[in-house]
Amino acid sequence: METFKEYEYPGPIYPVNPKYEGEEIQGIKVYGSISSLPDDIPIDLGIIAVPAKITPQIVEELGQKGVLFAHIFSSGYSELGEEGNLLEQQLLEKAKKSHIRILGPNCMGIYNPKGRIGFTHRLPLVSGPVAFVSQSGGNAHRHAFAGIVNGYNFSKIISLGNQIDLDLVDFLNYFRSDPDTKVISMYVENLKRGGNEFVQLLKETTKEKPVIIWKGGKLEAGHNAVKSHTGGLAGNIKLWKSMARQTGVILVNNFKELTEMIKTCLIYKMPKNLGTAIITGGGGPAVELTDECEAYGLKVPRITVKAQKKINEFIPQVNSNLSNPLEFGANGGHVNMIKVMKILDKEPHISSIMITNNPEWYYSAKLNMEEVVKSFANTITPDSNKNIISIYNSSRARKETIDLINEFYSKTRENGIIVYDSAQAAARSIYRLWSYGNYLKNRGYKIKTI
Amino acid sequence: METFKEYEYPGPIYPVNPKYEGEEIQGIKVYGSISSLPDDIPIDLGIIAVPAKITPQIVEELGQKGVLFAHIFSSGYSELGEEGNLLEQQLLEKAKKSHIRILGPNCMGIYNPKGRIGFTHRLPLVSGPVAFVSQSGGNAHRHAFAGIVNGYNFSKIISLGNQIDLDLVDFLNYFRSDPDTKVISMYVENLKRGGNEFVQLLKETTKEKPVIIWKGGKLEAGHNAVKSHTGGLAGNIKLWKSMARQTGVILVNNFKELTEMIKTCLIYKMPKNLGTAIITGGGGPAVELTDECEAYGLKVPRITVKAQKKINEFIPQVNSNLSNPLEFGANGGHVNMIKVMKILDKEPHISSIMITNNPEWYYSAKLNMEEVVKSFANTITPDSNKNIISIYNSSRARKETIDLINEFYSKTRENGIIVYDSAQAAARSIYRLWSYGNYLKNRGYKIKTI
Questions:
Q1: Could B295 and A225 be called an inter-chain contact, meaning their C-beta atoms sit closer than 8 Å?
Q2: Which chain B residues are Cβ-neighbours of A294 within 8 angstroms?
Q3: pLDDT tens per residue across span B285-344
Q4: Summary mean pLDDT of chain A
Q5: How many CA atoms lie within 13 A of A151 on its CB side?
Q6: For B201-227, b where at least 16 C-beta lie within 10 A, e where not — what string?
C-alpha cells in the first residue's frame, strides 16, 4: 500500500481485509471482502498476502470477481516439503478453474518503473534497458538498488518465487519481444518445465539480445539450499554449462559477476578478438594484470615492432616495457598514455586496451577529470572497434575523495569506459562478451549494437 | 634523503654527489666522493642511485671504504637483455672482490619501521608481525600501505629487484628466525638459484610460521612480463603448485588474496574441519553464499537435528531454513542470531560460522556496534575452536557512513572477526588455512597460535 502511494500509481487501489472493513489505510477505503469490491473498473492484479492455507480460497474469490492475474506474496508451500506441495496443487487447481494466472507464491512480485509498481521503497522511477527475472526476492531487491550504483536502470524486475504457474519461460518469452528490454538477466535456481522449450526459446532470444543467467545452487549443499528456498531441484551445473554453450547464454557465477556482465553488454562494442593491451605503472602490477587476463581467457600478445618503435620515439627503454604489458615507470603520465593509446588503436590483433587509473591522482595533479577521461575515450577511432577498460579498486574510499570517485565512475561511463575493480572482473566479462559474439558469428547471426 | 629525515633515522647520513660537493641537502653536508667520507663511524649501508653503467665502480669504491652492504636502486640491467646481463656480471664481480653484499639492482630497498628506514613517504612507523619479501618495488609500496587498511603492520618489507646477490632464499632464511616476524609473505617472479635449497628451507620454515607466496608470471604473456620486469624466467606455475603442496606453503593468486590470507593467518584459529555454518537473511543470498563456499572447497553440512530443534524453539519453520544454510526471514535479528550461534558453537562438524552483517543496519537500528560485535564474538567458547567470519561489501560506501564502516572493520578485528568482501574471499582463505593446518597435522608438527 505504501509503495503504490510512493510511486503515484495512477489507477484505483482496493485494500481488502475483513478486520478493517470500512476503515481507511493510507487514506484509502478498506473493503471487507473481494466480492464487495466495486464492479465499475476491471481489476488487473490481485496481490495476496495472507497465510498460505487460505490462499486457494482467495484465488477462487478473485476469479469470481473476474481478476486475471494474482501475485502471491505468502510463503509456506513446497519449500517446506510434502504438505506445502499439496497446497500448491490446490492453489493451481483453483487458479485454472478461475482462469487466473499466478505469479509466485513465495515471491516479492513486480518492479516496473514505467507502470509505477515496485516491491519496496525508494526504487528509482526511471525506466532502462535491463530486465531481471529472479527466483529470489532478496536478489530482486538487491539488484534493483545495485542498478543505481552500476549506472543502469530496469525495464522490469520480476521476482518469481515457486513458479507454480507463470515461470521463467513465460517471462523470457515476454522479454524477448519487449521493446523496452535490451539485455535480459536472470537469477535461476531450477526449471519448472521441460528443458527443451527453454533451450529453444533461449536460442531464439540470444539472436536478438544478450541473455545473462546466474545459476544458483551449483553443488551439493547449494542444492539443499535451493530446496529449502523455493522447493526446487537445482539440477547439475554441468548441464547448465553445456546448455549455455548451445544457446549463446552468458553464464555467470554470482551477483557481482551478473552486474559486471550487464554493464559490459550495455557499454562495450563486441570485441573482434581476445587481444588485450595493458598499460600500467610498475612492473609488478603489469605482471599481475597480465596473469589475471590470461587466467580468465584473454590474450596479451606483443604489439607490433612498428608500434613499439613509435612508442620508443617518446618513451625510453630503461625502466619501461614497450612490448605488452606496457609500463613506462616515471614516463607513464596521462599525456604519454594518450599518445600510446592512439598508436594501439591501429593494432589489428588488439581489441581491448586496459588502463589503470586513479581519480585521486587526477585530483592531486590538478587535472580536469572530465577532460582527461574524454581524451582517453577519443584515442579510439570508430572503425577500430576497440574498447577501453579501466581498472580501479575503490573498496577503501576515504571520506574526502568519495565524491571524486563517484564523479570518476559517471564520467568514465558517459564516455563508454567501464571501471572494473580488478583485471579479473574485466577479463572474465570481456571474455564472456567475446564468446557470445563468437557464438553469433559462427551461426551467421548479425551482431547488433545496444 | 627526505625519508631518512621524515623517519628520524638515528644514525649519521652522508649524501655523496660530486656536483653538489660542499653544499647541503636537507641540511646535511654533501661529499664529493665516497673516498672523502669520514672514517670515524663504520658505514652500514650504501644506497646507490646513479646510472646503471657506473654502479660497478661505485660498488668498488664502497668496498674500499669498508661498507658491507649496498642497495642498488638503479635499473637498466638484465631486464633490458644481453647488455644488461653483462653489467650485472661486472657488478657481481666487483661486489665479491670488495666483500660487499648487494640488494637489487632495480629495486626499492628496505622498509623497517623499527630501524627507521623506509622507501617512501608517510609509511607507518609501527612495527608488526608481517614480513614481506617482494620481487616488485610497486608491490612492496602497495603492500606497505595496504597493511594500514587491512589492520596489520610489518616487521620488514624487502624489495628484491633483480637479486644478483642477496635473494629470496637469503631473506627467507633471515625471516625464519626473526623473532619479530610471525607470518612471512612473498611476491615472487622467479628463483635465482637451484630450487632444492629453497624447498628445504621452506619445509623448515612452515613448521614454525606460515609462509604465503604470491607467484607472479603464471602463463605465457605473464612470463614475458616478468622477463621485462626483473629479467627472470618465471617457471611453470604447475611446478610452484606442487612445490606448495610439498612444503606447506600457502600459494595465492593476486595481491588481494595475499592480504586476505595474511589477515586470516594472523586472526583465526586453525580450523579443525571444513564444516561451515552460514547464517544470512533471505533464501537467494543463502544459496549464493553456499555456492561460493562449496566452489572454494568449504563444506556446508546440515547441522544436527538436535541443534535444529533447539533453534525451532524460538524460530518458526515458515520462511526459514533451519538446517544450513540458516536463514530466518523476518526472525533474523541479531538477538536470535546470537542465540543460534551459541547453539552452533556446540556442533562438532562445524569449524566456521559465516554471518552477513551490515554496519549501516546497526546504526539505523540504534544499536551500539561495539556491544553487538562483542556479543557475536562471545558466542564462541574457547575450547570449541571455532572462527566467526563476517561478509560485508563496502565497495560503494556513501560519505555519511564511511566512519561507521571503518569503525565496523576495527571493532570486528579487535574481537577476532574478519570482514571479507565476499564469501568467495572468506572461503578460499579459510580453505587455505585448513590445508596448511592439515599439512602440519599429517607430519606431526605442532600447530602454534600466532
A1: no
A2: 218-222
A3: 899 999 999 999 999 999 999 999 999 999 987 777 889 999 887 787 889 999 999 999
A4: 93
A5: 23
A6: bbeebbeebbbbbbbbbbbebbbbbbb
Count the Cβ atoms, other than its own, within 10 Å of residue A26.
Answer: 12
Per the CB < 8 A criterion, the answer to whether A306 and A299 are in contact is no
Sequential DSSP letters for A133-159: EES-HHHHHHHHHHHHHHT--EEEEEE
Contact yes or no for B319 and A138 at CB 8 A: no
Chain A positions in Cβ-Cβ contact with residue B299 (cut-off 8 Å): 221
Out of A79, A284, A319, the one facing B139 most closely (by C-beta) is A284
DSSP for A339-389, please give it. HHHHHHTT-TT--EEEEE--HHHHHHTT--HHHHHHHHHTTS-GGG--EEE
Report how many Cβ contacts below 8 Å link chain A to chain B.
205
Q: What angle do CA A301, A307, A313 make, to 5 degrees?
A: 135
C-alpha cell at A322: 614497450
- In the structure grid, which three cell numbers stand for residue B125, read together? 612507523
Widest distance between CA atoms in chain B:
85
**Which of B187, B228, B287 lies closest to A321 in CB terms?**
B228
pLDDT digits (tens, 9 = 90+) for B154-189: 999 999 999 999 999 999 999 999 999 999 999 999
All three cell numbers of A40: 465499475
Q: For chain A, list the domains and their CATH numbers.
A: 2-103 (3.40.50.720), 109-267 (3.40.50.261), 276-442 (3.40.50.261)
Please state the pTM of the whole predicted model: 0.93
Peptide bond before residue B124 is cis, with ω within 30 degrees of 0: no
User: Chain B window 128-147: which residues touch A at a Cβ cutoff of 8 Å?
Assistant: 134-139, 142
Report ipTM for this prediction: 0.90
Query: How far does the CA of residue A395 sit from the closest CA of chain B (Å)?
Result: 4
